[in-house]
Amino acid sequence: MARVCEFCNKGRLVGNKVSHSNIKTKKVQQANIRRVRATIGGTTRRVRICTRCLRSGMLNPSA
User: Fold this and answer.
1) How many domains does the chain have?
2) Residues 6+ apart with CB under 8 A from 37
3) What are phi and psi of 10, to 5 degrees?
4) How far apart are CA 43 and CA 27, in angstroms?
5) What does pTM read for this prediction?
6) Cβ-Cβ contacts under 8 Å for 43 (sequence gap 6 or more)
7) Sign of the CA dihedral running 61, 45, 11, 20
8) What are the start-end ranges of the H helices in 8-49?
9) CA dihedral 16, 19, 25, 31 (to 10 degrees)
10) H-type alpha helices, 1-63
């Protein structure tokens, strides 16, 4: 699936946008997903990872 982190499964968030007159319309927030190259199991492949997992070092378990 597109726009989903392969490590934490973070995807889109759906909620309501509420106007001043209390009219509700659907609002979608997408996760901040990046495609990076990672060495997983000795092979290099491209993964989709959210920036929070990327910053916390999920790609490098020894760190």
Assistant:
1) 1
2) 44, 45, 46, 47
3) -75, 130
4) 39
5) 0.74
6) none
7) positive
8) none
9) -50
10) 51-56
Residues near 26 by Cβ (< 8 Å), separated by ≥ 6?
Answer: 14, 15, 16, 17
CA dist 16 and 60 (Å) reads: 37
- Express each pLDDT in 1-43 by its tens digit: 689 999 999 999 999 999 999 999 999 999 999 999 988 888 9
38: containing domain: 1-63
Question: Which pair of structure tokens corresponds to residue 51?
Answer: 């920036």
**CATH number of the domain enclosing 18:** 2.30.170.40
Q: Tell whether the model's pLDDT for residue 50 goes beyond 90.
A: yes
